[in-house]
Amino acid sequence: MGLPWYRVHTVVLNDPGRLIAVHIMHTALVAGWAGSMALYELAVFDPSDPVLDPMWRQGLYGPGIWVSDPYGLTGKVQSVNPSWGVEGFDPFVPGGIASHHIAAGTLGILAGLFHLSVRPPQRLYKGLRMGNIETVLSSSIAAVFFAAFVVAGTMWYGSATTPIELFGPTRYQWDQGYFQQEIYRRVSAGLAENQSLSEVWSKIPEKLAFYDYIGNNPAKGGLFRAGSMDNGDGIAVGWLGHPIFRDKEGRELFVRRMPTFFETFPVVLVDGDGIVRADVPFRRAESKYSVEQVGVTVEFYGGELNGVSYSDPVTVKKYARRAQLGEIFELDRATLKSDGVFRSSPRGWFTFGHASFALLFFFGHIWHGARTLFRDVFAGIDPDLDAQVEFGAFQKLGDPTTKRQGRNLDLNPLVYTFLLVSTLGIIFFAIFFREPPKISTKK
């Protein structure tokens, strides 16, 4: 009974030696890949600007045990005390991580001692097919996919384990204007102390302003946009400052910000009451609120352009478009040949990867759970059979009197065709697309 190529793993089901061997090999492959990638990322990591070019902009995953303020400005690695009260259930309290690990570890030890001492009831043992190794596989897959779903959620929505200084902001912080509100709160507090606009905006941390930029929104990445954020919109070099727009009547105007899932968005400027006062029209012939007609000007406060103002309509419209994306930054696209298309942060990649594998493992749990529960239906094996059955050993499953079969791979003709075409394709490219030899012109 030769097994098809996609079912050869069944030969390890009742062979403990090979079972542990393939698991050790799998662990080695995973650890080797992860370690190699970590060394590669460290080799190409540029630590020169932790504010505007942090590790998450470069695609590097950060360390743990990181404790910071709610706006990701003062974070550092530090020890934490377990939080045993109700506050430990707050997902943003680092002490809850320590207390829950202690509690879970203690519970796990007690559960292990219990199961060493107490055998399961016979009805439960038979009902869940506990004598079958595939039951262990099914339940293990369930634990893995559940954990993957949990960490995908804590990463995407944010928690104490996924601080923004290590993984970048969440999309909801852009959607809710989280950093914008904190910036305006600080500005209002400064103005209440009779400081000038220039003074209060100059005191806004560049790090806080950088969070309030749509290019750091993990949901702005897209399908097939591989690479770090720096490969997208470029390496941030400096904050140009906060632009304040005014019409000819002196009203302060605010640019409507681009929602997360838009690639283009109309440039609309509203006053403090939300009334549209200016825009960049699609058709100039029908415009009533164009920058030229309304006489919009822009002045910068804080940053590199502090105190600089523009009244030229072309320049005003340029900065109005850029203000749609949050605070305005100078971006270097030449160094990495960045293409100007937004990329996702490690937060987005982590979430996507773990959610995808969680879904895959969920179906794996259903598959192997069904195989072990209904083994008598699928394979014709008596569920009460105590003898071990090796798949692929005999012509008739579980019958040692039948002729023993060779362990050939029963490859589908389509697989042979694929292998042949792939080999020919590699040879073709190696011959016709190789780099031509360098011809020396020296005598």
Describe this structure in words.
One of its GO terms (biological process) is photosynthetic electron transport chain. Belongs to the PsbT family. This is Photosystem II CP47 reaction center protein. It comes from Deinandra increscens subsp. villosa. It is a multi-pass membrane protein. This protein is an alpha+beta fold. Among the domains are: 1-42 and 395-443, no CATH class; 169-344, Roll (Photosystem II CP47 reaction center protein), CATH 3.10.680. 42% of the residues lie in helices and 9% in strands. It contains 14 helices and 9 strands. It has helices at 16-44, 94-117, 122-127, 133-157, 164-167, 171-175, 178-192, 197-202, 206-211, 291-294, 313-323, 346-373, 375-378, 413-432; strands at 66-67, 76-77, 235-246, 252-255, 268-270, 276-279, 297-301, 309-310, 328-332. Strands 3, 4, 5, 6, 7, 8 and 9 form a 7-stranded antiparallel beta sheet that branches. β5 and β6 form a beta hairpin. α4 runs antiparallel to α12. The longest helix has 29 residues, at 16-44. The model is unreliable at 437-441 (pLDDT under 50).
Series of H and E elements: HEEHHHHHHHHEEEEHEEHEHHH
CATH superfamily of the domain at 169-344: Photosystem II CP47 reaction center protein
Q: What kind of sheet is the major sheet?
A: 7 strands, antiparallel
Output the CATH topology of the domain at 169-344. Photosystem II CP47 reaction center protein
CATH architecture of the domain at 169-344: Roll
Helix share, percent? 40-55%
Low-confidence stretches: 437-441
- Strand content is 5-15%
Task: Round the mean pLDDT to the nearest integer and report it.
Answer: 88
